[in-house]
Amino acid sequence: MTAEVRLEGIDHRFGEIRALEGIDLEIGAGEYVTLLGPSGCGKTTLLSVLGGFVTPTRGAVRIGGRDVTRVPPAKRPTTTMFQDYALFPHMSLIDNVGFGLRMAGMGRRARRARAAELLELVGLEGAGAKRPHALSGGQRQRVALARALAVEPDVLLLDEPLGALDLALRRQMQDELKAIQRRVGTTFVHVTHDQEEAMAIADRIVVMNAGRIEDEGTPSRIYRRPHSLFAARFMGETNRIAGRAGAGGIETPYGRLDRAAPAGEVVLCLRPESLRAAGAFRIGPARVRDAAFFGTHVRAHLAPEAAPEEVLVAHLPPGDPPEPGRTVDLAADPEDITIFARGA
Questions:
Q1: Rounded to an integer, what distance in angstroms lies between the CA atom of residue 251 and that of residue 13?
Q2: What does the buried/exposed string (b/e) look like for 234-260 if buried means 16 or more CB atoms within 10 Å of the residue's CB?
Q3: Which of 40, 125, 170, 175 could make an S-S bridge to 165, C-beta 3.0–4.6 Å?
Q4: CA 86, CA 96: separation in Å to the nearest integer?
């Protein structure tokens, strides 16, 4: 089962603290959406509003067209999967997965058959008799996912479910989560502070800051063409270059950029991988301060001769790692540069 979600004018306060402000968001049926932002930005509070654990101070929550703003969690068409998987240690996996079905009154034979199907779905076929302590972290995460899906929610809410896993396992589970979501078709809303995780799994990313939505869109658009300076900074490393826009383009420490922008002080944002040896916007010679090999690229800090007090970060080809003190030429394609008004 699946359903669309609409959040309309959601505000929430904890005493004098404003946790959410003016949240308007539509999530399509069967869409995988991530709520992304730093600690304290309101993303977990928003997930709690969706799940019914927090009643907003103002606004409405609609799931499948139904107003559920004041409907308790147990009566909503949602299930929440927390970072702490909270599996019952004394129960077998098949009983853990079937627990919600047991509470709903499903008979033993039917619920065990359904639980076995879901364990197979998450790659644990034949493991139903095991107990949680016999599993790895990634396997426990799969059992928790199977349990959440067993009750066939219209919307599955995931609160940083991969945060406790190591890097390699987290990346594996990102792929598996996405594949399972595609198979079951349920609407997924996933909270994370990990930008790479959000880009790996989401159909759409919602970037939050200080209780508000800063930006929302596809991972590619959010990364390549962010709508705010905060979103540009939070979605990965970016070089910020000061400039002044006028009728003839934008003046920068490295010369003129032939791009239109509203007159005044601006900030040019340029991703490290967009710096290369050739391009229409020429930064010029830059001295390597340090460089680290990352396999797919070399991450280098460079001091450009045109503005030696500045430090630029570049992802250079891995074949010839530059030594500190070496000078390299830097340039960029103007289309790779995002421009914001100063203070935006």
A1: 44
A2: bbeebbebebebeeebbebebeebebe
A3: 170
A4: 10
